[in-house]
Amino acid sequence: MEGTFEFLGLTVYPFGLFVTMAALVMLVLMGVLGMKRRLPEGTVRVFGVIAVPMGVLFARLVYCLMNLPFFIGTYENPGLMLRFFDGGFSMTGLLLGLVLAVLIAAKIMKAPLSDLFDVFAVGLAAFLALVYFGHQYTELGVGKVVESNWLTENLPFLFIARRMGRVEYRLAVYLYQAIFCLILLAVSLCLFLGKKQRRSGNVALSFFTLLGAGEILLESLRDDGHMLLIFLRVGQLGAVIMILVCLIVITRRYAKEKKGGAAVLLTWLAFLACVAAGVLMEFALDGRMVTGDLTKLHLYGILALICIASAALPLGLLRGLKTVDPE
Length: 327
Prior knowledge:
Distance between the termini: 55 Å
Helix content: 55-70%
Mean pLDDT: 87
Shape: globular
Oligomer: single chain
């Protein structure tokens, strides 16, 4: 799917162009919002200098770890893992590298970590929207096959049409992910810029909780065979960890305020039940569990409800905390 074009004697890849543009948009947006939060001057620039190599390194590292048997067995050349420019990166690894860059930049610049994470969350939403939209120039973000129906005929842009004797329609998951991140960008900006005073870190906690819940479902729709752990995707595992970390942070806040013991315990039990139910749904969708008369549409509907609950539980706890930073 990826084409190239020449510019000033250089071969330009459209997806690479989208990633570069996404990084610039993220840093500019973070710079503007960083001034509003009065971060120490130069914090976003320091983050950018650290984030680029960290993001690339961890994106490649996670990809290579997940595909280690290919490099050792199939290719019989582990040294190929060092060839970064041959392609092969993990979005989960990229996010891990960027989060670590936030932690390092905050420490170097002595910036409030929760404020920097709020700024980062909004910028990340814009970054992900552009990166996912750029997936149209790759083989990533290709979803499962669907039968021709009213949607494929009237909203064809939501699908990838390929002629294989007959026209085969696949879900354009990359587009759904891009739209989802644009919605998160709007929500995060509203929370960040809203007139109501909010506690530092709440924007980031809300963003990452929603992002994790959405990605669990959206990653399940993909059928590109990329970054799989048996039948689960690395992106789904990363999404669950994302929500889990947010829940841990919220729990620690409750502990500091010495309140909500029963509510916190029930929330944890309910969240773990959601995780277990989500795994069962993936078992069913992968054909490893008998589901009776339930169709895939039914199963995805149930998975969507599980994802909504997985987001609602931490966000419900978050509402019960002090809305402004404690003195």
